[in-house]
Amino acid sequence: MSDIEIAQRANKQRIVELANDRFGIAPEHLEPYGHFKAKLSLDYIDTLKSRPDGKLVLVTAISPTPAGEGKTTTSVGLCDGLNRIGKQTIVCLREPSLGPCFGIKGGAAGGGYAQVVPMEDINLHFTGDFHAIGAAHNLLAALIDNHISHGNALNLDPRLIAWKRVVDMNDRALRNIVVGLGGTANGFPREDGYDITVASEVMAIFCLATSLTDLRERLGNIVVGYTRGDRVPVTAADLKANGAMAALLKDAIKPNVVQTLENNLAFVHGGPFANIAHGCNSVSATRTALKLADYVVTEAGFGADLGAEKFIDIKCRMAGLNPGAVVLVATIRALKYHGGVAKDALNTENLAALEKGMVNLERHLHNITQHFGLPCIVSINHFTHDTDAEVALLEEKVAALGGVAVVAKHWADGGAGAEALAHKVAEVLDGPAKKPTFVYPTSASLWDKMRAIATKIYGADDIIANSKVRAEIERLNESYGDFPVCIAKTQMSFSTDPAALGAPSGHTVEIREVRLSAGARFVVAIAGNMMTMPGLPKVPAAEHIDIDADGNIVGLF
């Protein structure tokens, strides 16, 4: 059966009853969206503050390939596996974006018998969080142009407006546009553009905010542009926009509660991609789960060079989180791809290619243990065509690196297939407590922070930027030098070249653009040809998605 067919046949429990039975969350603390999804009230979350925290494990992966790795699937399977061995566990995931759902990737709620449900709802409109984020973002964009049209009392320079518009859909035609055409009634013409909603600073703020008050303050700190002449920053608060923006987000900020196929609780909330944003579940959801459960499984987007780095250097630094272990997801198929095997030949045993591709896993493992300072378990996400010899070789190579690899079959067998992984993770989490180490200190300059990530994590020799970008980095460093940096880079490679597989070294990372996210409290550095508005492929997944006569969605992964 396909993923969606498995999900549609799931024995779901009413979410209000499930939350009450498993964690004693009274029905009045949940705001149902139908029978199987709900939001958790902020008032209830406030009552949990005095409780001790459970133990946190981060799930990340090797560099993504067309062969697939299965990070979300592993996160769900591990949650189910931990619950099966008696560890009360909640999984915290990111919300899917419509762009990839209708583009290349398809659905993003796990796979096989390790999924969160209702799968179709989660992948499509869910509880409307992304719509609220897009509306709040575009409200600010509308207020900027309206302010200029009505006299521009703040003296905003139309040439220096830094706030684009957003839409939750891949649409390359919107990357660069001109607004304000059609005469004086329509404002002043200027160049503008669209990003995908998940790249919005509002999304980042939404994921990092700890309360409604914190959310409103962060929204007010957004720098939308600069004044003529003296380049004084103009903020959303200057435009009196942050109150209305917060009002649009008042429900969205509440964590979403759903369930796995095995009726374990899942918090699915927030979702910036780690190649263009920080790529983590919301702080609110993660913290809440830690107060409720003994163990919490969370994920970070794409490979460990992106998602895990940002999880540590941005989310953990800001929120004070201390993951006790990291699960590094790898597939034999993906490692063979890194070893030079074409996608259509990955089902054939190839020990030489597997060994060659191991360099990608090796670098990620080294980064996690040496630069992040955390114990790491390699999870081999098992596929049907994996041979015993390939599995044995991978286990042998990981052991030679001083690590441990565990075969996990949760895709086929659900939580039962992840019990071995669950036992190993529990063993590490129940050992001596660990605190992550950061790749760079807060006191380093923005340029040195970017260089530290590139040289330590990406294996680069150095970073470069043209004189205009260098000058902008130096200008930002004067006021925002204590901010972390969020590097937007291709997820396909340690370098900025998506075709450079394995573990390229000695390359140079070009910083092409920098963007200030003053509300989120980090600086975005765009490296190489990374786009913050992706395009659709020649044959988008949307062509295969449909609805039958009974109203059932088909073709969604």
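Above is the first protein from milestone M3; the second protein from the same milestone is given next.
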Amino acid sequence: MFKKKIIIIFISVLLYQSPLFSKSTSLNKFDSKTLSTYFSGIVAFENKNNSRALDFFNSSKILINKHQPYLEKFVISLVLEDKVAKAVNFIKTNSKKDNSEFFEAYILLALDSLKKNNVNKAREILAQIPEKFKEDRLNFIIAKSLNQYVNVFINKKIQKENKNFGDLSLISETFQRCYLDDKNTDSFFLKLINNNQTDYSRYIFFYLTYLIEKNKINDAKIITNNLNYINTTLLLSQGKSWIERNQNKEFSKVFSCNNHNDIVGEFLFLISNLFSSQNKFEKSNFYLSLSNYLNPKFVFNLSLVVENFYLNQNYKKSKVVLKNFDQNQDFYYWYRSKKEAQIISKTRSKKESLNYITSKFEKIENPNNKFIFDIANFYKNSKKYRQAIKYYSSIIAKLDDDSEVKADLLYRRGGCYERLKDFVNADKDLQKSLSINPNDAYVLNYLAYSWLERDYKINEAIEMLEKAYSIKSNDPYIIDSIGWAYYLIDDYLKAEEFLKRAVELMPDDPIVNDHYGDILWKLDRKIQARYFWKNVLGMDDAEEEMLEIINSKMIEGLKSS
């Protein structure tokens, strides 16, 4: 209670200090109940509890209408709760207010006009956006790009801009050409999806949609035949499944180049993804909600909403959004089942999580390789290695010997054998994986570390680790491994250099902390050594065997010294 009062007082001070607030009606004109309700809404908003914030905001609209800076909070809360139409209406009812400080108000009104097919009105609204917003690069890109889209919709031709936003410009032009059914649409899609610098495999889906709209079914089948379910994204997996089942009409149900709302919705998804990559989850969800407003049919986009909530540990909201992924779409529903299992693991137990996903898996009559692969990973992560091996083996038997997918599966199965201390089969799988892909840094690291742990082929292990490090020099696990290798050959100074870096990169990893403690002890820094060993004792993912060893070290130090 005391903390809440302090927050409210702090917000009050900010309000009085705000130049915008000084232009508004004085707080003295409102009763204490109205103010209390309003400030409670602000507190809820700042705590990311948007539904609760809305409850308070709805009770204090009189105050909100007088203070433009907080119109923004109310509107954003509405959008985050997928009440976009209500947010738009609220802006419209306050049209006499000066919204010049509220960038998103312009965007909402413009998108609402697009939604209602009033493209000219959308252009008019976008033209009103003040120049000052261009100081923020992302806002500038959003406004500029939307304006470009709208001009294409109106003028029916590509308008070359002097501003280039890199790959974003290529993406926008590709969709604009698709909308216009331009003769170069194919080449632009191919240029986009064959980009060696960035993974734009997502756009294979939209290329498939375009091909199907043009009745180029065989071309679409050729593309999907070259896709492997195991290493293909959720969106592409579902698309591949539709084509294999001759459910081509499913594509037009969710996206069409002929629909300007679908195209702009995809642009907004891209913007949302940019914000998500910067861990700006609220901004990300805001633009995701707008994307869904323009194209509510495209359920896949909600997977990013789910992930944002999941990463923010808002599992309740994740589960609500997951309900949109129904049983009629096999890969979408499997995604839902996996994510629900992950939530159960976080909120209840790994055992219940495994029971849940296996119950879903057992109901699938003819599971494809992707589903089998996923269930194998669940067993592996739950330390049920024999069951994982069984499922990995069933896929491996079907794959070509030179397949990169096979190399990955051998790596995973080899890891299971290693955990079971079946080193013969572990080494066989891991070396076979390397014969397919000799530059896989993670396989090199895993096999080398396994040998180090067994005091086996130390020199060869170090050579593999040095190769892995040359490929992935910033990977903390590889850094730890090579540091540990130098420890084993008594090069303590070099070992400390690497292990110090590893613990800086992974301060919450029990193995890294244990290793660093060991090297500090060898360097006669025993107080510091015990500090890092003690850290391990407080880590939830430290295994029982390790904890017993650490407790012994805390009392006796390293017995070998």
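Note on the second protein: Confidence is low (pLDDT under 50) at residues 1-27.
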